[in-house]
Amino acid sequence: MATTDKKLIHVVGAVFERDGKIMAAQRGPGRALENYWEFPGGKIEPGETPEQTLVRELREELLTDAEVGEFVGRSEFEYDFGIVRLDAYFAKIIGKEPTLTEHKQIRWLGADELFSVEWAPADIPIIEKLATFLS
Q1: Is the pTM of this model over 0.85?
Q2: Tens digits of per-residue pLDDT, 23-47?
Q3: What are phi and psi of 116, to 5 degrees?
Q4: How many Å apart are CA 128 and CA 126, to the nearest integer?
C-alpha cells in the first residue's frame, strides 16, 4: 500500500434538509475549489468537537445559528493540497436564514437535482448516500 505525506485536513459539513431538499453552497472566488458546491462547514480546530465546529463555522460562513443532529457519514478525498476527511451531520437552521459571506450562492436541491451541480469531490460520497435517503 502506498503511503502519502500529504496533510490530513479534518472538516465537517452541515446537511440541511427542508421539504425533501438538501442545501448546497457554491464556494466563492479566490478560495480553494472555487465554484464547486459543498456542504457548508469547515476545519475542526484543536479542542473542538465536530458539532462545536459546525456551530462555529455556520455562524462565521452563513451568519446563522444551527442545531447539529445525526451523523450522516464520512468520506475522504486526496486533493493536491492534502487529504480531506469530511464528516457530515444533519443540521437545522434555528436562527435567521443564511446570509452569504464566503459562498457565491445557495440552492435547495431535490433528489432529482442533487447531481445537477458540480460537487467538491469529498462531498460526492455523502451526496450519493443522501440520494438514497431522499428517494
Answers
A1: yes
A2: 999 999 988 899 999 999 999 999 9
A3: -85, -5
A4: 5
